[in-house]
Design goal:
The protein is built from 13 helices and three strands. It is mainly alpha-helical and 323 residues long. The longest helix has 20 residues.
Length: 323
């Protein structure tokens, strides 16, 4: 067989044929020019030769126009997208608390009583069994704690998914709803790269620190979650922001931590303690002095730990500089 002959697998042939067909769809069949969509006339035309490739296209947008967000919300007839942060994923309906009809007129006393009964039954139907009531309570806890800790929506969504998995795999018997929901939020924050220390999590939770740690280890092991060890550098931006430090101080703190990693200093040390000490040392190095007490309050860690890690970081920095 000639060396210039090239063989293809079935998958490669399929991939190349799909790529070629996609290129053909995006090119003019007459001149090979680029196609453009004319939304006003509902046509797809070639920008080079003007050939109308497709006409009478379906307009999938709304038939109304809106000039601000308020007008858009009032005219829109669709709901919010589904989300795991609600026990029913946002697919159920709510009966408004205002006792008014569609025209804004107040309801009569008989109609108000009827609507109140409907609200009661609607709430009962939304949580038909114990599993849904459990999920509703847990997701409410996750939302409350995430708000108190300033965690973004993606962390709340991930925590909700982790809790749903724990509930589906029957991990809750023998453990409290609050404990599993707190452990789910702690795991989600670490997965998203916006970790919070166990002390910070315990401060907003309704369960003790030891129970959170124990439940977290159990959930991670049973669900086989892949969670990397917390990086001390991920705490630095939040600590620096809370202390009002400059970007230069934040960069210097990151540099100290990188040096500590290269020297193996981070092994076996609390990432929160290392981050707090790095921020404190960096503030002194750039003449933006903050007290150990200030850093201790922000990082929720003792001043003794900050002092110990502070000396270790500076020694590692001096050792690298001498070498």
């Amino acid at each position: 067989m000639s060396e210039n002959v090239r063989t293809y697998t079935a998958e490669q042939v399929r991939d190349e044929s799909e790529t070629e067909s996609a290129d053909e769809e995006l090119r003019c069949p007459e001149c090979g020019g680029q196609l453009a969509t004319d939304t006003e006339h509902g046509e797809t035309v070639c920008v080079d030769c003007g050939l109308v490739v497709e006409e009478d296209e379906i307009d999938r947008g709304p038939e109304w126009r809106a000039f601000d967000s308020k007008e858009k919300d009032s005219k829109s007839r669709v709901g919010a997208p589904t989300t795991n942060m609600m026990h029913d994923k946002g697919l159920s309906t709510n009966i408004g608390w205002q006792d008014k009809d569609a025209y804004g007129k107040s309801l009569s006393s008989r109609q108000r009583e009827k609507m109140q009964r409907l609200r009661t039954w609607n709430e009962r139907f939304r949580t038909r069994d114990s599993k849904e009531r459990n999920l509703k309570q847990a997701l409410g806890e996750i939302d409350r704690m995430a708000s108190a800790l300033g965690l973004p929506d993606n962390v709340r969504e991930t925590a909700s998914v982790i809790y749903r998995r724990a509930l589906d795999e029957d991990l809750l018997p023998g453990r409290s709803i609050e404990g599993v929901s707190t452990a789910s939020l702690y795991a989600a924050a670490r997965q998203a790269g916006t970790p919070r220390s166990l002390d910070e999590i315990a401060a907003v939770s309704r369960v003790e620190k030891d129970e959170i740690a124990r439940t977290y280890r159990y959930v991670v092991r049973e669900l086989k979650l892949e969670i990397q060890p917390a990086d001390p550098g991920s705490y630095v931006p939040r600590f620096a922001s809370d202390l009002g430090l400059s970007d230069e101080a934040e960069r210097r703190a990151r540099s100290l931590l990188e040096t500590a990693k290269s020297e193996g200093l981070h092994s076996g040390k609390s990432p929160v303690g290392l981050a707090a000490a790095a921020v404190y040392a960096a503030s002194l190095l750039v003449n933006e002095k903050v007290t150990q007490s200030d850093v201790s309050d922000v990082a929720n860690i003792s001043e003794v730990t900050i002092r110990n890690r502070y000396h270790e970081l500076l020694e590692a920095e001096d050792g690298v500089a001498l070498n």
